[in-house]
Amino acid sequence: MIDEAAIVPDDLYHALRPMLATTAGRCVALTTPRGRRGWFTASGSTGARRGTGQR
């Protein structure tokens, strides 16, 4: 679980992804609005663009 995901550095998030992939883990990210930037905004935009509905 990541709280205030909008201020978590991209490098930290990208370091966690391989660990989630090897354990079939999930990432739950919560945040308040802090601008449209970083991995949190990108993952929401990508999911919406693919039509998955995931944000």
Question: What does this molecule look like?
Answer:
The chain has one domain (2-50). Helix content is 49%, strand content 7%. The chain is built from 2 helices and 2 strands, in the order E-H-E-H. It has helices at residues 10-23, 38-50; strands spanning 2-3, 29-30. A two-stranded parallel ribbon has the order 1-2. The two termini are 15 Å apart. The model has no long low-confidence stretch (mean pLDDT 79).
Helix-strand layout with pairing:
Blueprint: E1 2-3, H1 10-23, E2 29-30, H2 38-50
Parallel strand pairs: 1-2
Q: Which descriptors would you attach to this protein?
A:
two-stranded parallel sheet, 7% strand, single chain, mainly alpha, 55 residues, 49% helix
Strand order of the largest sheet: 1-2
Distance between the termini: 15 Å
Shape: elongated
Q: Which regions are unreliable across 5 or more consecutive residues at pLDDT < 50?
A: none
- The count of strands amounts to 2
- CA-atom Rg in angstroms: 11 Å
Question: How would you characterize the largest beta sheet?
Answer: 2 strands, parallel
Strand content: 5-15%
The structure class reads mainly alpha
How much is the average pLDDT? 79
Q: Report helical residue fraction.
A: 40-55%
Order of helices and strands: EHEH
How many structural domains in the coordinates? 1
Instruction: Enumerate how many helices there are, as a single number.
Output: 2
Quick structural overview:
With 55 residues, this protein is mainly alpha-helical.
